[in-house]
Structures are given as C-alpha cells and as structure tokens.
Amino acid sequence: MANEASSSTSLTVDEEDEILMLYGSESGWVDPLSHCDHLTSLSSDLIHIPTPDTPCNRCQHPAENWLCLCCKEVLCSRFVNKHMLDHYKQNNHSIALSFSDLSVWCFSCNAYLDAQAIMPLQSVHFTAYVLKFNEPPPLRAADCIEITDNRAEGSTSGN
Ligand SMILES: [Zn+2]
Ligand SMILES: [Zn+2]
Ligand SMILES: [Zn+2]
C-alpha cells in the first residue's frame, strides 16, 4: 500500500573545473614542453609587461591577443588577423603568451610550453596571471610545493 517515493537527489557540483579551463582543456590539449631551444630569445625584462586588455598593435583588436615574449609587442591571434603569426614570420620571435588563457606557445617548436616548469617563463606567467585575475595563480597539485611566500630557487623535481 505504501507508495515508495524514494527520491535521492545528490547534487555534486564541482567548482574545481575552472582550474582545468585555465590550463586549456577546451580542445586538443597535449602535454606542454618543459624545455625549448628558443628561450634565449626572450626579452630580458619580462617583469614589466602590457596588461591583458592591451589591443593589437596593428589592427587594434581589443581582446584575447598574444604578447610576444621577445619584444613585448601585443598582437592578435591566428583567429583574428594573424598579426602574431606574421610577427613570428617576419622577426623570428618564436615565443608568445596568450592573454586569453595565459598559455605560452613556441611557433618554432609548434608546441605549448609549460610556463610554470620553465624558469625564464615562470615570472612572466605569474605577472600576467596577477594582471588578469588580480590574484596569484593556484599551485598545481602535481608539484606539491609547500605554500610559502618564498619562491623556491633552483629546486627542480625530476620524475
Ligand atoms: Zn591584429
Ligand atoms: Zn616580437
Ligand atoms: Zn621553441
């Protein structure tokens, strides 16, 4: 006689998905390189960089541009007017940081670089992240670094 209405609704909303988005899970994610031969061409001053809302230097496209890490010029993506790609072809400046997801791309290697694993890229990635989100980037679980204010210097964990 008893009408069993066993409604067990379990809602598990995981907010941590946004971390995945930051690391570019959107399409065709491959492991980024942890080294690249073109790092020597990086600008010597990557502490002072343009803000993520800087328009393209050539066509004034307003958002989601790339920052050339060799000369700090801000140029639009291959999905807009390809000005960053043109810049690479004309000047051989291989390494650029995306202001849309803060990934670092090497045109010569044709691959993403792991900005948080490559020493010369760590500070510029950090700076760009803070400019974009007004907070420091989250630590990656894989690294398991102790949370201190001091930056670990020269401690690389090989696997
Ligand atoms: Zn442009
Ligand atoms: Zn450049
Ligand atoms: Zn490279």
From TrEMBL:
SUPFAM superfamilies: RING/U-box. Residues 34-135 form the UBP-type domain. GO terms for molecular function: zinc ion binding. Keywords: Metal-binding, Zinc, Zinc-finger. It holds the Pfam family zf-UBP. InterPro entries: Znf_RING/FYVE/PHD, Znf_UBP. It comes from the Eukaryota. This is Histone deacetylase 6. It comes from Nicotiana sylvestris.
